[in-house]
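Instructor's aside before we start: the two examples that follow are unrelated to each other. I chose them only because their records fit on one page, so don't look for a connection. First example below.
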Amino acid sequence: MYKISSAVPVDKSFIGNYSFPKEELVSSDEEKADLLIKLHVATVLGNMEKIKCKIFFKDSKGVKVVETTIWATCEKNVQIKGGVSIPIRRILDVVI
């Protein structure tokens, strides 16, 4: 398992430069469903109340965390400010 406690904080403006491998990080159906619920809640709170969340994700170099507002949760990605997206398959957790 990946250590979220060792996640490196990053600025959302750099995420577009990261490389995201194709492998899924969350394997069980239950964990995937839980993550999608968190993403949808964070999206609603971000759009209605401007509440930021922490997204823990893993690119090709390691675990990172960004604090941001999620503007949209799509089938394969979450959209954040500036048209930047993070593949859901690479998200480890979302903390609201």
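Example two begins here.
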Amino acid sequence: MSAVLKPEARLEPLNEALLDDVLRVEQSAYSHPWTRGNFVDSLKAGYSVMTLMGGDTLLGYFVAMEGVEEVHLLNITVAPKFQGQGWAVLMLDALSLWSRGRGAHWLWLEVRVSNTRAMQVYERYGYARVGERKNYYPADQGHREDAVVMSLKL
């Protein structure tokens, strides 16, 4: 059974104090998680790295890279014990609003072909499957997994 959280949720930029919490969630959510270096590099590059907090509890986070009239969602994660409660949609709403405010016309993302749950969330949100990237993600035993490319017209 998933944990239920009652405190008001808020988005705030990732800070150094939360990085260890983000890494713990990342490692619990994925077989091939991002590293500390991936997050630090994203911050140094000026990407939008936002955390979703419920009180003092990290519910999730996203990393997005701004381009010319588009934003590329690089990572969006809800802590496993809070999945299925609508937090991903809340973060997608925040990302869409931020992107529109930056003049973006499109949102882009890749998702593992095996991650059908995430694809369903994205499709319900309005993203369309527009392509595939072969051997995009690392997989077990040195193999690679394809990615589905999805986009959303803002």
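The helical segments are 16-29, 36-44, 87-101, 116-125.
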